[in-house]
Amino acid sequence: MPINASSLASSFPQLTPSHLPVSYFLLLLLILLYLSMEKIMSKHEHPLNLVDLWSEQLQRKEEREEDEEENEYEEDEEENEDELVANQDFQCLCFLCHEEINWFHRYYYSCSRCSSYTIHKFCAELPDRVEDICEAGHTLVFYQWGHNWNCYICDRPSKILYRCPICCDYVDANCVTKRLQKNIIYHPSHKHPLVCMPKELLYECDACGKEHKGNFYQCRSCAWSNLIHSHCAFLPTKLHIQSTTNDIFSHIHPLTLAYSFPYTDRMSKNFPRCTGKMNKNYEDAEYPNLLHLPFPDSSYSLLKHLFFKEDGLEVTKTHISHHHPLILDDARPTSSRIKSISYHNPMKRIQLLCDGCLRPIMSGPVYMCANEEEHCNFVLHEWCSRLPTELKDSPHQPHALIFRSKILEKFFGVFNCGLCELPCNGFAYCCATCGYYIDVNCAFLPKEITHNSHPNHLLSLEGDSFICQTCDKFRIPLNNALLIPEKTTHMCDKHPMELSYFPIENHKSEYFCEICEEELNPEWTFYHCRECKQSIHPACAAASIM
């Protein structure tokens, strides 16, 4: 390889034959010749193709937005999910810097003929010469050496360097790209490219909220840009939780990394007492009679919980609500002309409601009219027949509330409950002085309860709701707490439907009610069948039960 004498002189202006022995000058010539022969520019003999690892996902996202047929979207999603995961897990080595090319780099070049030749986009576009790196203001020339040299900036060994021919300093190509702001990644959490900051920092990462020391990425396009530590920036997009936690936690499906939270979760940061694990805020020994809601099914009620007795039942009795004697359904004589009752069963379209509390009668014991001549259809839960005639300790103070089987002064006996505000024409407790009425279901409300929608926290009665004193914003209305059971049945589904308080895991389609066919918000309480993947509103379920 020919040596240019002028360039040699410019490279070593102080080393001339007048200052040094001839042998030393010849040694420098041999070294320079060796370095010139080792120099390999980052060129490739075949054409290179630019590959966008995100193009397939972005194209599929556009197709989903244009697709109006839900079934077609679900099938396409299932067919291509594995292919998208493969793109996100893509890894290969850069031929130039020998470092990993992954999904976060987004772009890379590959040879159209050589299957093994891949190179980072920024490595392929490295300039032959760079300015403003050398402290003396000299131009640095790109070299790829056959052995390692230490970078004078980071002091790390590297084979891909820029060399100052005057100062004889070597700068790693990574340090050069950082100085030139070309160390860029494309992150799915942000719409603009993220640039690696030139110096290591000790700072709080805006992605995880913890303090880190090292390289941080930020957006140079946004006025207020978050700083993301490199460890958080390159987290895998999917993982199996059991493999990263030594089986402390487990889940059957891979978990996908989320870059933002729902609005309610973001707002919960303003109420730190509501976040994290909800520790129990009461002792069981202090509340031996605490009511745990919701009730298991529609056959349970607050009155049954308070007044039901399995032993010592009267076979016949009289009650102020009915002018005929009452008899237990199970105690009817075989010769009686009174027909046996059929219990309430929505699946068979059989309806039987208690004339006292107006709740479904789904099991005994039940009192019914004993008169064989008039064939009255009057039926009453056994526990509803033993309600007290007066309430002295009631929500309505200072007057006592008197039991009334019918509010005759109201049209068809229909009144609005003073607590839950729902219309009712069954048994009631009233204040004749104030014209105040409450349904018997609301007359015996406990002062404290617990509910599965807000576990481990005690809920206290305030007005028409139960409120958590620990979490400022949580409240549940009376009718939701007492009238919505844990399980229900409906003719639209052969399985029992369970109450759900959160969106269903791996639910692919939109949520809608099978009864009214209206949209259903999965962030609110609803019934769901996990076998048939069907959901219904609690209000629609209650209407079908009645």
Describe the structure.
The structure is a single chain. The chain is of the alpha+beta class and 546 residues long. The N and C termini lie far apart (98 Å). The longest helix has 19 residues, at 70-88. A hairpin with an 8-residue loop joins strand 14 and strand 15. It is 18% helix and 25% strand. The chain contains 12 helices and 36 strands.
Features:
546 residues, alpha+beta, 5-stranded mixed sheet, 4-stranded antiparallel sheet, 12 helices, 36 strands
Radius of gyration: 39 Å
* Helix fraction bin: 10-25%
Strand content is 25-35%
Number of contiguous helices: 12
Major sheet size, sense and barrel closure: 5 strands, mixed
In short:
This protein is 18% helix and 25% strand. With 546 residues, it is α+β, with helices and mostly antiparallel strands.
Ordered list of secondary-structure elements with their pairings:
Layout: H1 5-11, H2 22-38, E1 48-52, H3 55-66, H4 70-88, E2 91-93, E3 100-102, E4 107-111, E5 118-120, H5 121-124, E6 129-130, E7 140-150, E8 157-163, E9 170-172, H6 173-179, E10 184-185, E11 194-196, E12 201-204, E13 211-214, E14 216-219, E15 228-229, H7 230-233, E16 238-239, H8 241-244, E17 255-256, H9 263-267, E18 291-293, H10 302-307, E19 316-319, E20 322-328, E21 366-369, E22 379-381, E23 390-391, E24 401-404, E25 415-416, E26 423-424, E27 428-431, E28 436-439, E29 448-451, E30 459-462, E31 465-468, E32 475-477, H11 478-483, E33 487-490, E34 493-500, E35 526-529, E36 534-536, H12 538-545
Parallel strand pairs: 18-29
Antiparallel strand pairs: 1-4, 2-3, 4-5, 6-7, 7-8, 8-9, 10-11, 11-14, 12-13, 14-15, 16-17, 19-20, 20-21, 21-22, 23-24, 24-27, 25-26, 27-28, 29-30, 30-31, 31-32, 33-34, 34-35, 35-36
